[in-house]
Design a protein that fits this description.
By secondary structure, the chain is α+β, with helices and mostly antiparallel strands. It has helices at 11-51, 54-67, 70-73, 76-105, 235-246, and strands spanning 112-119, 122-127, 135-139, 161-164, 169-175, 180-184, 189-193, 199-203, 209-215, 227-233.
Length: 248
Amino acid sequence: MKLSFQDPSTGIMEGIIDLHNYIMFYLIIVVILVGWMLYDIVLEYGLYMYLGMNSLEKMFESRRNSLNLNKVMHGKAIEIIWTITPSIVLVLIAIPSFSLLYSMDELVEPVLTLKVIGHQWYWSYEYSDFSDGDISFDSYMVPEDDLVEGQLRLLEVDRKVWLPIDLPVRVIITSTDVLHCWAVPSMGVKMDAVPGRLNQISLHIKREGIFHGQCSELCGVQHGFMPIVIKAVSISLFNKWVDFNLNN
């Protein structure tokens, strides 16, 4: 069982994982500090008030004096600290997140354009940058009865999307009927397919492999049966695939 992120295949996904780990560092510190303060407050005031026992009150009184807990729970200093400290933490988190957001929205000059069209309930793909013609096909989920050993249930398709590695790719996403969402977790991609509108994202795949995704929008009764499979290959192998599809 894999509880963490999928292995990244793009620089964007690597940045998302790094930002997550960076934020978790501050989150753990905040949880420990706030948890300790809540525990101490409940132990100091709640328990003996609920039980009404003088012995407990005396015990907590001596404990409070020995640890000087009044300065932790009351006073101007602590009020200033827990107001300013979260602001500083938010600034430290915002600085790397801004650079990641900028890189996600940055659109470089693409070498290849892939058009993705969402339907109820399958995907269509179009490659239209070739002088010898266009490549277009529909991609349907492989039914469970047709799966062979080693294939993934609800994640296999009859026709995969082939994309080259180490080249900037522009993906244009739209829909013909209802809202869909083209999402591939290992690439850090999640973009809505909106009827009558073209949304655009950039991909720069760094390694070869087969990457799975699914529609992430509640688009109807068969919403869970719209998988996405991208096969990232070398440039030479991609060119052979293009020649084969243009000639057949």
